[in-house]
Known about the structure:
Layout: E1 10-16, E2 23-33, H1 40-56, E3 65-73, H2 78-98, E4 103-111, E5 115-125, E6 140-143, H3 149-158, H4 162-168, H5 174-189, H6 193-201, E7 206-209, H7 214-224, E8 230-239, E9 268-272, H8 275-285, E10 298-305, E11 310-320
Parallel strand pairs: 3-4, 8-11
Antiparallel strand pairs: 1-2, 2-5, 3-5, 6-9, 6-10, 7-9, 8-10
Helix pairs in contact: 1-2, 3-5
Amino acid sequence: MLTEDSPDVSLIPIGAAGGQSETIYLASTTDFFSPISLDPYNQGRIACANTLSDLYAIGAHRVDTMLMILSVSTKMEEEHRDIVTRKMIEGFNDACKEAGTKVSGGQTVFNPWPILGGCASTTLIEHEIIRADGLQSGDVLVLTKPLGSQIAANLALWLGDEKKWQKASAVIDLDTALQAVQKAEKGMMRLNRNAAKLMCRFGANGATDITGFGLLGHANNLAAVQKAEVSIEIRKMPIIRGLLALESCVDANYQLSKGFSAETSGGLLVALPSLPSAQDFVAALQSPEFDGPEAEAWIVGEVVAGDRTARLAENCQVMEV
């Protein structure tokens, strides 16, 4: 979480770089949560991607090490527990490998609920860090994943609950529901690593990852720590197709259309210095060299002169993707 004196991660100065004047920092972050996916392997990948995302938000695309935080469920039958735990670990390790790191230790405990996450760390030289407080008026904002992951995760549960699915099916058909769940899971499993690399390439002035506070909540947090007197204006919200109709369905109020629906392992909200650089960032991210065409990204707003707050534009376009 962003605070007035800290970005998304802990940054501790640990010395100088090879006798030079630049400071070396130890960057670390931790995150863990109970399963959001019904597939334990996917859950492992999501947990790893979610843990790493705060590092990626400061441009740290190289991760030195990962510690795994694992809670083994005491409420599951032993046979099921062993399978689920093994598959979660497998998914977590595979995502670590994709990130260019590996699990070097951690902690395992027993708990009524399965929990998975980790503590990731790396070292950075000062000039490698993209601090969160450098936004400038005129910056163009890019979002690297669609919105709606939390609703999609709940939708996956509703599909197996006759009463809840009966309510949900009044506003979404089965095929659309299944596609929404699949798209959300693919997005949550995708690392923000390539987006972090491209932040460095295209001169990003700051970023944050979109998780528990939703798009507008995290935009507000990002705006609040700026050195310049600026605000963030969100002009477009890309939402996974079919989920908007569900935001007040099944006795829940997700505030998806208002920008406050929680996300898990969401995208990065990146501030680029110009429209051409933002367009080039999106094109590069979707190129075969990086995430490929399935990795959608959108220009969603602009940094404007203001009072360090964020808002939805009056004509904010809510689009299904």
